[in-house]
Amino acid sequence: MSSWRESPSKIILLDNGSYEIKHSKPSLKKNYKFHNAKFLDKSTGNSISSSTPFFIHDISKDYPIENISAIGNNFTRPLSRGLLGDIDLQLDIWEKILNQNYSLNKDEESIKNSLLIFTYTPMAPDDVMEGFFEMIFEYFGFDACIKSIPHIFTALYNKKKYPDKINKTVQLVIDSGFSSTSIVPIFNNKPVYNAIKRVEISGKLMTNYLKECLSNTVDLDIRKEFFLANLIKEETCFFSQDFPKDMNTAKESDIYIKNFILPEYRHKPPNFFENENNSKYIIKIKNLRFIVPELLFNPNIIGIEAGGIHEGILSSISECHKDYKDLLYQNIITTGGNSRIEGFNQRLCHELSSSVDYSFVKGVQIFGQEKNANNVYEEPVIEGMKLFALDNEVIQDLAITKNDYDEIGFNIVWKTCL
């Protein structure tokens, strides 16, 4: 049987995000997603500790849902604040992905000839990384693995996409996602570790704030409906380019009102009520559309004493070598779910442009995620992983093998780093 050294079909790519996992193979055109969480049936009345969770991914296929309340807040995640906290739960989810999509089972010959390339949160502590390697080598029995923060693959993909626009040596990658926003300067395909910054304001905080506000202002309690609130955020929110002005405009007119039609969960997958004239099924959203995203740049509007993501970026660049600061400002790459909200890149460019010292910076240039021909957002991390996996010489040089792990132990983890 061939191994990953001879065949790219034996390489599994896994972008292990806090909200969802993107996965594929270098040989596949299609990428796949899997919610990195499990939920419980609230109708049973069982607590998480005494009931077997279902995969959220299977809602529309295997599990009958009669209404929104079937999911609610009754779910649990293996990653907390982006860090692995529940190894057993992460094992269950990985096992489901590997078996269902790639017919790989632990300790079988097929997995013993496979390489796993996976992503993890920047600056993850040793005990978190040790948990990942226990899963990969001791539980599943992979022959080898390569670990990297997702920012490296995002930069690789964008350099390929914009060969004449993005500097090949220096980039600044901003990943604003579910658990946090991480800012990583990259030099010669390596992170500048001392300049990595993490801003705790996240998509999860925004969604939680939205569901609390809506529950207090509309005739519908969605405080237990995280996924519904997240959908409302994605469908209706936008970043204000002038927050005080938009707040005044919203007080004086209704131009920002948008109707969100509630989903109808009696169908699989859920449909949306078509009758927009029936107010029972409509939530009217006004200034929350831009107040919620504002938290990323101005968290103190709800009493959180923290800097916005633009301040984290300025701090990160300030800790880099002065000769590369201009290049960093001109080669900013944004990714993550929050960056897909309308107006994100424009607002970020405005905040940074008003703060930089133009005596040594020529300007600010930002490259963001775009939709493909099918009107679906590209996945720069998983696409960058595919590009990386095609370089057989590099992956053989960087791979950590099970033999090395068995012989040296966890210290082998830092032998090679992307």
Structure explained in plain terms:
The protein has 418 residues and is of the alpha+beta class. It has helices at residues 59-62, 87-102, 109-112, 126-140, 150-161, 203-217, 226-236, 243-252, 288-294, 309-318, 325-330, 344-353, 380-389, 392-398, 402-408, and strands spanning 11-16, 20-24, 32-35, 38-39, 54-55, 75-76, 79-80, 83-84, 115-119, 144-148, 170-176, 181-187, 190-191, 197-199, 258-261, 263-264, 271-272, 282-285, 332-335, 366-367, 400-401. The strands form 6 sheets. A 6-stranded mixed beta sheet has the order 3-2-1-9-10-21. Strands 11, 12, 13, 14, 19 and 20 form a 6-stranded mixed beta sheet that branches. Strands 5-4-6 form a 3-stranded antiparallel beta sheet, with no helix packed on it. Helix 5 packs across helix 13. Mean pLDDT is 85; it is low at 45-54, 59-71 and 267-276.
What secondary-structure arrangement, pairings included, does this model have?
Layout: E1 11-16, E2 20-24, E3 32-35, E4 38-39, E5 54-55, H1 59-62, E6 75-76, E7 79-80, E8 83-84, H2 87-102, H3 109-112, E9 115-119, H4 126-140, E10 144-148, H5 150-161, E11 170-176, E12 181-187, E13 190-191, E14 197-199, H6 203-217, H7 226-236, H8 243-252, E15 258-261, E16 263-264, E17 271-272, E18 282-285, H9 288-294, H10 309-318, H11 325-330, E19 332-335, H12 344-353, E20 366-367, H13 380-389, H14 392-398, E21 400-401, H15 402-408
Parallel strand pairs: 1-9, 9-10, 11-19, 19-20
Antiparallel strand pairs: 1-2, 2-3, 4-5, 4-6, 7-8, 10-21, 11-12, 12-13, 12-14, 15-18, 16-17
Helix pairs in contact: 5-13, 6-7
